[in-house]
Specification:
This protein has 301 residues and is α/β, with parallel strands linked by helices. 35% of the residues lie in helices and 16% in strands.
Length: 301
Amino acid sequence: MTSDVLPATVRALYPFESHYYALSDGTRMHYVDDGPPDGEVLVFAHGYPLWSFEFRAPIIYYAAQGYRCIAMDYIGYGLSDKPGSRRYHTLRRHTYNLIELIGGLELHDVTLVVEDWGGPFGLGYAIRHLENVKRLVVMNTWAFQESYSHRLHPLVRLVTRRGVGELLFGPLNLAFRWGVQRWTARELSPTVMQAYKVPFRDVRSRVALVQFPRMISTSASHPSAGEMRDLEERLSTLQHIPTLLLWGEDDPVFTPDVARHWKEVLPRAQGPRFVPNAGHYLAEDAPDALVQQLDRFLENT
């Protein structure tokens, strides 16, 4: 899929030029690159089952303020390529896809704004490239294998079962009704819901929607466990990087307890700052509050 097939109603909300980066595995990653090319770099890493459309409001705002805003679609999402193989989707591969994109675009002194799966991917970049990370903004995410036992949301537990995820997120295409509308605190407009769904037009394009819940490390022997354990063990190396913990207070997936655990792991971080009446996706529920908090953080770090 290319950007020119987006409906006009979606394009009006997402008025960005599309860029594509050819990864070493042969897939193409779509990304937004908005704002002056010499501006300070903000990198936005989206959550499940969203794509870079999620960050349209902060991108428009910060590009106008002189920042260079980068927002990618993970492979399998948005306008990026969508491999048909379930085996493609691993925590390690998606982490290294992000590493490759930032390196290939020669982005320097980046501020990473990460949410949900953007946390493991973005922080996986950060622990390997400490010298290139200026700031971290950690929103409604996790990166823990041993130090915090997080009870999976019942829906997530359900869709990790073989055959169930294929049915619910394949032909029934319920990822957006269940995973987006239920995890936001406000009613999303039909146009916004259309925007999230339109890149996933058929069953073949929804493989990532099925596989990402299965990438969650649920045991010591899970395929993601080693990568997540390594990430968790190296989080302390991020202590010197200015970090903001920013949280949707009504998140049913990562509750405020998860934010408080982040504070134990990164005690020098600012926050956690809880945004009331906001759920799992801050950029959707409270874009004004998100920008206000980011402004304050960027100005003082």
